[in-house]
Amino acid sequence: MSMEARWTTACASRTWFWTPCARPSGRISSSASAWWPTSNGTSAFRRRRASKIAKRLAGSGKVDFLNIIRGHIDHDAHLTNVIPIQGMASSPHLDFAGEVRATTKFPVFHAARIADVATARHAIAEGKLDMVGMTRAHIADPHIVKKIIEGHENQIRPCVGATYCLDRIYEGGGALCIHNAATGREATIPHVISKTTGPMRKVVVVGAGPAGLEVARVLAERGHSVEVLEATGEAGGQILLAARNPRRKEMIGIVDWRLSELERLGVPIRYNVFAEAGDILERKPDLVVIATGGIAQNPVLEAGDDLVVSSWDIIAGVIKPEGPVLLYDDNGAHTGMTAAEMIAATGAELEIVSPERMFAPEIGGMNHVPYAKAFAEKNVRVTINTRLKSVRREGNQLVAVLGSDYSANASVERRVAQVVVEHGTLPMADLYLELKPLSHNLGAVDYKALIRQENPIKMRNPDGEFDLFPHRRRRRQPQYPCGDL
After folding, report:
1. What confidence score (pLDDT) does residue 52 get?
2. Do residue 448 and residue 417 come from a single domain?
3. Residue 17, φ and ψ in degrees, nearest 5
């Protein structure tokens, strides 16, 4: 039996990838990538066997390095053990990869949620790895190495582990980043913002959520004079809600990085300023950007709108879960599922109802895993293809009437203590509507011109005092990654 055949037999429970790559000299170099099992009860025997196989590969003369990956990918839940997402352990297989290197004395590469430079340095300094893979970290910021070399490590945009990128890839989409709009769009959106060659403008940005902070950052990088007005005492908008889920607290990195960048760029943020038209006019801006976001809204019900509470109230802790709870989600993104996860964590009896063919269709497979795990462990009931029609009170209970889009005759009732609803957001457009008649462009933006990278602001009102750019937002905008927690 050949060595290759013996390896195939010995590695029946593993998957091996042989990857040839050309060296500058013309010689073909190869790597061996091993997917090691991580089932419950992994024993010292398994580790010894893994080391033995690695030694065979290293001594074969057929490979130049080992790329160690631990786990298997036959299910979404198993995939997240190989590639951990937000809320899971960082660099969970680094020590194992280091054991392989120590045993084989052979070059080892490894990648599995090594998201920061400090961990990468540790891996090299401690002799665990010869090269560190930081895939998602480079999707968030492709200039990590350049910034380290130039002494600007503090400017590295952090990967927050949201895994929006990989969920898109595994479902046939492009590798986009939840908080770097340039990633995957490099042909039209630059990672490095150049200074404007046109006139410097005075800009007022209203709203310090992720959209407002980002537009302020980009405009400041362009060289404009920017001021941000925020109605509350803290920046972050809906990201602050998302981060209230302990498992998703890393989302706050989206805000923290932008605040750090705005401080570097000298952009002031005025907190506790509920901006009105007078606040804008007294600043005499050339450009006003409205990034005031939205507020939670209820679905259209036949009756009982005053008897339901929003998912935002649950997430913010304004209202405590009181079981049994029925959570109706026809938005299908993180907001509803975050509220459901937090309700389930209290031990309250919970049923999730969705009019969709599957629950949370806007959440990718890898992000689906922790929600599904929490619901399975807390015995949460999930009902699909069902719409909440109305709510009424009977004694100390609420009666939720459920119907179906597939049959006008279908009707069932649930008796619960609390009905929680998630129906997307309603834009906070009051200031924008007030400023429209005072602007040069009457608040209109030519989005086709914007996509062509042409001036999207057209003169419509010669008597206007500034250009007005609205934060465009639909009721449901799940494809804008920061638009729904």
Report:
1. 84
2. no
3. -120, 125
